[in-house]
């Protein structure tokens, strides 16, 4: 598995996700947002967390129009894997890789805390190392993580099983109290229809070491590295 981690001006979790991928056994290359082509043989493109362009205009709005996003869309259209974490999820939505948009948290506050997620399905390249319905303990750190979309798209996401993770309590129950930002249906992450693009607000890359809080995030990277790319 060869992964390309894209760095935008203001990315701050690019090093973290590179570390998580390497720990899981991936080869990692770094790509600058102004590049127009991917290195040879890339299986996975990663849009990391952070504050690209200082979150100006709307978070992810400028980065979503960066040169590298044409190559990212082409990679996704070929069936290649794309992982957008937090600001990367916002960028993926702005770039049209995923439907919907992330807006200000319902309480208008930046939220930085531990958070459980329910793994909705484990038959994807991103989640095969988890159990279906498992509650995983990760962390969140965002001001604009409130996922919204129109009713038709929401029905399609739900109907086609494209919700990847929901905010939950420690037992995996999805409740309004467990929802930290007001996202529709407690959505914390979604897949593209081909299941090759995943965007999620929480940070699995920051829970990969028991010395610094936990290891529940490792499953996502181990799932990916153990999987084969689409032809
Ligand atoms: N940790 C992050 O990636 C933050 C995402 C974004 N800048 C926000 O605050 O919503």
Automatic annotation (TrEMBL):
Domain of life: Bacteria
Pfam families according to UniProt: GATase_5 (PF13507)
Chief localisation class: cytoplasm
Active site residues of this protein: 86 (nucleophile), 203, 205
Intracellular or extracellular location(s): Cytoplasm
Catalyzed reaction equations: L-glutamine + H2O = L-glutamate + NH4(+); N(2)-formyl-N(1)-(5-phospho-beta-D-ribosyl)glycinamide + L-glutamine + ATP + H2O = 2-formamido-N(1)-(5-O-phospho-beta-D-ribosyl)acetamidine + L-glutamate + ADP + phosphate + H(+)
GO biological process: 'de novo' IMP biosynthetic process
SMART domains: GATase_5 (SM01211)
E.C. no: 6.3.5.3, 3.5.1.2
Keyword Nucleotide-binding: yes
InterPro entries with a match to the protein in the record: Class_I_gatase-like, PRibForGlyAmidine_synth_PurQ
GO molecular function: ATP binding; glutaminase activity; phosphoribosylformylglycinamidine synthase activity
Pathway: Purine metabolism; IMP biosynthesis via de novo pathway; 5-amino-1-(5-phospho-D-ribosyl)imidazole from N(2)-formyl-N(1)-(5-phospho-D-ribosyl)glycinamide: step 1/2
GO cellular component, one term: cytoplasm
Sorted UniProt keywords: ATP-binding, Cytoplasm, Glutamine amidotransferase, Hydrolase, Ligase, Nucleotide-binding, Purine biosynthesis
Subunit structure of this chain's protein: Part of the FGAM synthase complex composed of 1 PurL, 1 PurQ and 2 PurS subunits.
Record's function text: Part of the phosphoribosylformylglycinamidine synthase complex involved in the purines biosynthetic pathway. Catalyzes the ATP-dependent conversion of formylglycinamide ribonucleotide (FGAR) and glutamine to yield formylglycinamidine ribonucleotide (FGAM) and glutamate. The FGAM synthase complex is composed of three subunits. PurQ produces an ammonia molecule by converting glutamine to glutamate. PurL transfers the ammonia molecule to FGAR to form FGAM in an ATP-dependent manner.
UniProt cross-references to PANTHER family, sorted A to Z: PHOSPHORIBOSYLFORMYLGLYCINAMIDINE SYNTHASE SUBUNIT PURQ
Protein name: Phosphoribosylformylglycinamidine synthase subunit PurQ
Species in which this protein is naturally found: Bosea thiooxidans
Native organism taxonomy: Bacteria, Pseudomonadati, Pseudomonadota, Alphaproteobacteria, Hyphomicrobiales
């Amino acid at each position: 598995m060869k992964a390309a981690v894209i760095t935008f001006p203001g990315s701050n979790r690019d090093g973290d996700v590179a570390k998580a991928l390497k720990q899981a056994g991936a080869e990692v290359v770094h790509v600058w947002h102004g590049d127009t082509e991917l290195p040879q043989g890339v299986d996975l493109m990663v849009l990391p967390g952070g504050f690209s362009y200082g979150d100006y205009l709307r978070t992810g709005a400028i980065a979503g129009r960066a040169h590298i996003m044409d190559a990212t869309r082409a990679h996704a259209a070929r069936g290649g894997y794309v992982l957008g974490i937090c600001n990367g999820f916002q960028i993926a939505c702005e770039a049209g890789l995923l439907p919907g948009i992330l807006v200000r948290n319902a309480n208008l506050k930046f939220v930085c805390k531990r958070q459980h997620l329910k793994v909705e399905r484990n038959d994807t390249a991103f989640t095969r190392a988890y159990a279906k319905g498992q509650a995983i303990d990760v962390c969140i750190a965002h001001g604009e993580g409130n996922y919204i979309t129109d009713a038709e798209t929401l029905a399609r996401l739900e109907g086609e099983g494209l919700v990847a993770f929901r905010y939950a309590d420690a037992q995996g129950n999805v409740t309004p109290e467990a929802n930290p930002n007001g996202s529709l249906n407690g959505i914390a992450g979604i897949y593209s229809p081909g299941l090759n693009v995943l965007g999620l607000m929480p940070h699995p890359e920051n829970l990969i070491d028991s010395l610094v809080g936990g290891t529940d995030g490792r499953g996502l990277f181990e799932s990916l590295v153990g999987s084969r790319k689409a032809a």
